Amino acid sequence: MTVPTITDEEAWCAVTRRDRSYDGRFVTGVLSTGIYCRPSCAARHPDRRNVRFFAGGAEAREAGLRPCRRCLPDEVARDEQAVLRAIKAITAAETPLPLAQLASAAGYSPSHFQRVFSRLTGLSPAAYARALRDERVREALTAGERVTDAIYDAGFESASRFYDSMQGRLGMAPSAWVRGGAGVTIRWAVVESSLGPMLVAATEKGVCRLSFGRGRDELERLFPNAELIEGGKEFAALLQRVMSAVEDPATGRDIPVDVPGTAFQERVWQELRKIPPGETRSYTEIAAAAGNAAAVRATGSANGANHVPVLIPCHCVVRSDGTLGGYAYGLDIKRALLEREGKR
Is the dihedral of CA 157, 159, 160, 166 positive or negative? Predict the structure, then answer.
């Protein structure tokens, strides 16, 4: 197959599970029937010996095949263009656009367009618009804009709408981002773990930093204006849960965390916490689950931006060929965590 980064084995696995996230990345040619299909085609699976994979419909047609009338593989390109136009319209709009308006511009019914948009992006049009506004606020705050200006410039109708939409998601108040944690109390400790010295820090919302071989100086760099309090009774129970999670990583999935990121980073982190204990996923699989199968590099960056390893188990992500890939604290620690989950 001429599709880069996708092996024939990976493509066939996607076909057997009818994985929609691979639609548009290749087509399945069935030589015995002379047709080509989407990976997600609902038709009965052909004999593997009669299958050949192509980068797209044009390549399959050059080989003498015709498109499947059931799954309409050539419509994938049309769907992608419709979604790209909708994203451009959502990005340019000052107020949320109705689903009916977006669907009409694409030439689809509202219900069908909602399904197409969700399949290709991982979010509904409304959820995508909300995530875009949230991300605009974060970028503006990081750049140093006043909180109120950032909220209105991002497209929120009022400050209260912004805070309502962020309830339970951001943890730290938005203004604290600009001021290096000002107004936030962070409790912390450095403890000895079986993987070496471990720094654990938490706000009242949850763990905001977990790292190996680091100390208070790291917190001072990340949160120079926060109130840093070492230990304390209020912190002891949470610290014990984190220490237990290092010994048995499968127990750390439900520990509360306070780690705001971009919309895509948060989707990646959510998918990481869904990985069943003892299993791994490839960067490609996580990218697809997060709504953008092509964003493998961005998925790796989201892993690297994870401030609470183990609790958000980025150690469970490996390369497609089964090798470990990278890890911020070294492959020995990644290997140890995987072994503790029963994976080698």
Answer: positive
47 is a domain residue: yes
From 13, 37, 41, 68, the catalytic residue? 37
- CATH assignment at residue 198: 3.30.160.70
pTM for the whole structure:
0.54
212-236 pLDDT, tens digit each: 998 899 899 888 888 999 987 778 8
How is residue 322 written in tokens? Answer: 């089964």
Catalytic residue of the set 41, 68, 71, 314: 314
- Concerning whether 314 is annotated as a catalytic residue, the answer is yes
Q: Is residue 125 part of a domain?
A: yes
Question: Which H or E run contains 302?
Answer: helix 296-304
Let me know if 208 is a catalytic residue. Answer: no
Domain carrying residue 303:
263-340
- List the one residue out of 146, 150, 142, 311 whose CA is nearest residue 243: 311
At a CB cut-off of 8 Å and minimum separation 6, what does 64 contact?
A: 34
Q: Tell whether 86 and 154 lie within a shared domain.
A: yes
318 lies in some domain = yes
